[in-house]
Amino acid sequence: MIIDRDGNVTIITQEKASVKTLVNNIEQGYDKFKNYHLIVNLTSIEKIQLEDIIEFLRLSNKHRGDKKSFVIVTDMVDLDEMPDEIVVVPTTQEAYDIIEMEDIERDLGF
């Protein structure tokens, strides 16, 4: 797990461990991330299933409930199959765009 900060955004990149292990690691260290928007970069994982993305659902709901964005980056899934409750995009730039749009919505009170 590689952790980078870019302003008010934390980018977590997964390299080797399973998605389930990554979710557990994020949950255990959540206090370090809770004040930042989160981008979870899964682009280095070649095979991702819908069940892997759903592993992040509880964490995503908690983070979004605290008025912070939570975005998963992967181009290895069918985006049409993803649940509406979790944001999945194919590129890091799109993740930043989502965070910017959600910040504007929060500022406007949506």
Describe the structure.
The chain is an alpha/beta fold. The chain has one domain: 2-Layer Sandwich (Transcription Regulator spoIIAA), CATH 3.30.750.24. Helix content is 41%, strand content 20%. The protein has helices at residues 19-28, 30-33, 50-54, 57-65, 92-108, and strands at 2-6, 9-13, 37-41, 70-73, 87-89. Strands 1-2-3-4-5 form a 5-stranded mixed beta sheet. A hairpin with a 2-residue loop joins β1 and β2 (9-13). The chain starts with a strand and ends with a helix. The mean pLDDT is 91. This is Ribonuclease Z.
Helix-strand string? EEHHEHHEEH
Helix content: 40-55%
Largest sheet: 5 strands, mixed
Supply the CATH class. Alpha Beta
Task: Give a brief outline of the structure.
The chain has 110 residues and is α/β, with parallel strands linked by helices. Helices cover 41% and strands 20% of the residues. The protein has one domain: STAS domain (Transcription Regulator spoIIAA, 2-Layer Sandwich).
Summarize this structure as a short list of keywords or feature phrases.
110 residues; alpha/beta; Transcription Regulator spoIIAA; 5-stranded mixed β-sheet
What is the fold's blueprint, element by element?
Layout (H helix, E strand, L loop, with lengths): L1 E5 L2 E5 L5 H10 L1 H4 L3 E5 L8 H5 L2 H9 L4 E4 L13 E3 L2 H17 L2
Parallel strand pairs: 2-3, 3-4, 4-5
Antiparallel strand pairs: 1-2
